[in-house]
């Protein structure tokens, strides 16, 4: 609100008055459903943050939730435009989003030339780091000069670079004689950090003077203004949680999908410095939800023991070792903030590296042992690596939009080891086992809001991926919603915001159709002496109808007789409700798959019917 302060004063009272705005009531917010007898009130929603009465250069702080949807968290790509941040938070919050996860950057080892200038991967001087000079000397050379001044035996053995749009406080430094903030001009800022080669991290300059050692220099290209402070301020204003990214580990040069164990000590030092600076500046901030581990890996059968026994530790997955080294820092510095990781699934049978649902469950357990607090696996439907289908649909043809990925002429069971629901069911069971062992870990779902390919790509950043539609996104929520405590999506920009001329974006589709029924589960549940079905999901008020049928049986339609007669199971996503319909299960043949098609009071049908089979 610095702009507002600047406007104060008698001379510009008229200008202030011109920009004051009293927000009208939100006529677009749907009225609550009338609820006949038998239905207690739904749980009260969390308080909506206060609405500002003034505009600013980026537009008004409109904090109303106008169209709450089942997906409540989104990834964001960094941007230099402050108004874009504001607009994204506002748009996400209006569809019920309460969580933002931001993409981060990676730590990279780099060569330097004879003058100490940082080189890019092609061997040319990297223009991003070339402006960093001290007294006319490139920053890396200046760092070595300053180290030698403390002890002639000191030297730099390796150079790392890191870029960010954040600005740090003094908490990132240990020894100000060799570590410093270098302001080149009004827009260009660098931080120079010195990391002992052996992985230790001295609290003062004393060890740098007492004996000569090899050091790694970390050169950070940063920002003048801190983006994280801005994001947390927006989070406070909109009542949202922000998950900034941890530094991304360097990739193994021999296998790019694996984190490099070489240099992990330097990654740990950088992580520690940044987290301690966060602790100094942001401890106690309600909007700081946790931290995102951005190094992506495949969810599969992998081991992590954390053992000190070399023979046991040799079996640990290299990437999980790197994870654990970073996660330990978070637990030491900010133990109340969980770490979120979002691995991908690979279910295609023709891939040698694919994994079955049970192998993925083993991977979940290994991740929990590294200190991860939230596992939000990508459902991988957007890449075509997993399909959305039910057990009784294994013999049906693969979705047409997935055929470019798996090939023509295949059934679901031929193409995939299992469906999205199969994988999340096994991971939910794995989570239960880990909680019983004392691990505090949650299971979220990251539903991908794109298609493997399409005629409507969203821009150069998205490659060949095309936009999807709300119907397909609803289907994904139906598949995962029973097993997770939250549904998030990669990513808001650009997959939710892009659109061909004259067509609505996915975000606009959600806003228009947010209250369509989305059932996620159905269980047999009698009430008093009457048999019935409890349907769990979103937007299932009184007046909703359930069409129930199975093979060889003409479907029958039953109206919901009560909603929220009992709360949803513990740990289900916010916004989940329950609806009960009377139904005599004794008429269903043993092992028959029952299809339950849900239609709202206004005639809108859920995108996906439930397929259930209940042992009688």
Top keywords for this entry?
5-stranded mixed β-sheet, 16 helices, alpha/beta, 616 residues, 5-stranded parallel β-sheet
How does this structure look, described?
The protein is α/β, with parallel strands linked by helices and 616 residues long. 25% of the residues lie in helices and 19% in strands. It has 16 helices and 28 strands. The strands form eight sheets. A five-stranded parallel beta sheet has the order 10-2-1-20-17. The chain has a five-stranded mixed beta sheet with strand order 3-6-9-8-7. A four-stranded parallel beta sheet has the order 13-14-15-16, with helices on one face. Strand 21 (518-524) and strand 22 (532-538) form a beta hairpin. Helix 3 (82-94) runs parallel beside helix 6 (227-238), helix 7 (264-282) packs parallel to helix 9 and helix 10 packs parallel to helix 13 (420-436). Residues 29-49 are annotated as: Disordered. This is DUF4434 domain-containing protein. Residues 222-496 form the DUF4434 domain.
Low-confidence stretches: 1-46
Estimate what percentage of residues fall within beta strands: 15-25%
What portion of residues is helical? 25-40%
The largest sheet, given as strand count, sense and whether it forms a barrel, is: 5 strands, parallel
Q: Note the overall shape.
A: elongated
The overall average pLDDT, rounded, is 89
Task: Break the fold down into its secondary structure elements and pairings.
Layout: H1 2-7, H2 13-19, E1 73-76, H3 82-94, E2 99-102, E3 108-110, E4 133-134, E5 137-138, H4 139-150, E6 155-163, E7 180-183, E8 189-196, H5 206-210, E9 214-222, H6 227-238, E10 241-243, E11 251-252, E12 255-259, H7 264-282, E13 291-293, H8 310-313, H9 318-333, E14 339-341, H10 357-369, E15 374-375, H11 403-406, H12 412-415, H13 420-436, E16 442-443, E17 445-448, E18 450-451, E19 466-467, H14 470-480, E20 487-490, H15 492-496, H16 506-513, E21 518-524, E22 532-538, E23 545-550, E24 556-559, E25 562-563, E26 577-582, E27 594-599, E28 610-612
Parallel strand pairs: 1-2, 1-20, 2-10, 6-9, 13-14, 14-15, 15-16, 17-20
Antiparallel strand pairs: 3-6, 4-5, 7-8, 8-9, 11-12, 18-19, 21-22, 22-26, 23-24, 23-27, 25-26, 27-28
Helix pairs in contact: 3-6, 7-9, 10-13
């Amino acid at each position: 609100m610095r702009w507002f302060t600047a406007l104060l004063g008698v001379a510009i009272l008229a200008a202030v008055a011109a920009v004051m705005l009293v927000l009208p009531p939100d006529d677009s917010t749907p009225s609550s459903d009338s609820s006949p007898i038998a239905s207690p009130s739904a749980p009260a929603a969390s308080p909506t943050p206060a609405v500002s009465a003034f505009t600013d250069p980026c537009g008004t702080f409109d904090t109303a939730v106008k169209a709450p949807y089942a997906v409540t968290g989104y990834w964001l790509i960094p941007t230099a435009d402050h108004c874009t941040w504001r607009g994204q938070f506002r748009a996400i919050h209006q569809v019920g989003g309460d969580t933002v996860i931001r993409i981060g950057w990676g730590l990279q080892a780099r060569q330097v030339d004879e003058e100490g200038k940082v080189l890019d991967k092609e061997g040319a001087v990297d223009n991003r780091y070339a402006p960093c000079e001290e007294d006319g000397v490139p920053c890396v050379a200046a760092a070595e000069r300053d180290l030698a001044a403390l002890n002639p035996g000191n030297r730099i053995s390796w150079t790392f670079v890191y870029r960010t749009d954040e600005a740090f406080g003094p908490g990132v430094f240990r020894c100000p004689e060799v570590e410093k903030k270098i302001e080149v001009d009004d827009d260009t800022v660098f931080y120079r950090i010195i990391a002992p080669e052996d992985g230790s991290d001295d609290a003062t300059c004393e060890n740098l003077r007492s004996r000569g050692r090899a050091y790694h220099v970390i050169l950070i290209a940063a920002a003048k203004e801190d983006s994280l402070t801005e994001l947390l301020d927006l989070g406070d204003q909109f009542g949202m949680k922000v998950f900034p990214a941890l530094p991304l580990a360097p990739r193994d040069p021999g296998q790019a999908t694996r984190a490099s164990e070489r240099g992990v000590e330097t990654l740990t030092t950088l992580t520690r410095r940044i987290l301690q600076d966060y602790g100094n500046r942001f401890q106690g901030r309600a909007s700081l939800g946790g931290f995102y581990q951005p190094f992506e890996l495949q969810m599969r059968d992998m081991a992590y023991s954390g053992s000190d026994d070399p023979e046991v530790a040799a079996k640990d997955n290299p990437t999980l070792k790197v994870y654990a080294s970073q996660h330990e820092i978070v637990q030491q510095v900010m133990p109340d903030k969980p770490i979120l990781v979002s691995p991908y699934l690979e279910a295609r049978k023709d891939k040698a590296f694919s994994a079955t649902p049970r192998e993925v469950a083993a991977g979940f357990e290994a991740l929990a042992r590294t200190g991860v607090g939230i596992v939000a696996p990508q459902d991988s439907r957007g890449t075509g690596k997993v399909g959305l289908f039910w057990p009784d649909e294994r013999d049906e043809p693969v979705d047409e939009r997935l055929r470019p990925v798996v090939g023509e002429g295949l059934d679901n069971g031929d193409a995939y080891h299992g469906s999205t629901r199969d994988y999340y069911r096994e991971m939910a069971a794995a989570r239960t086992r880990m909680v019983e062992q004392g691990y505090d870990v949650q299971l979220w779902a990251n539903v991908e809001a794109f298609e493997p390919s399409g005629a409507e790509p969203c821009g150069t950043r998205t490659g060949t991926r095309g936009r999807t539609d709300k119907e397909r996104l609803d289907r994904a929520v139906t598949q995962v919603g029973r097993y997770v405590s939250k549904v998030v999506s990669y990513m808001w920009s650009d997959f939710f915001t892009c659109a061909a001329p004259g067509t609505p974006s996915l975000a606009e589709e959600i806003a228009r159709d947010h209250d369509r029924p989305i059932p996620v589960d159905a269980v047999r549940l009698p009430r008093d002496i009457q048999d019935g079905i409890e349907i769990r999901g979103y937007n299932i008020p009184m007046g909703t109808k359930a069409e129930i049928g199975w093979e060889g049986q003409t479907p029958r339609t039953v109206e919901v007789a009560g909603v929220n007669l009992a709360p949803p199971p513990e740990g289900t996503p916010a916004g989940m409700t329950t609806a009960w319909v009377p139904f005599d299960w004794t008429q269903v043949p043993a092992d028959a798959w029952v299809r339950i098609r849900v239609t709202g009071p206004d005639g809108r049908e859920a995108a996906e019917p439930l397929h259930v089979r209940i042992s009688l």
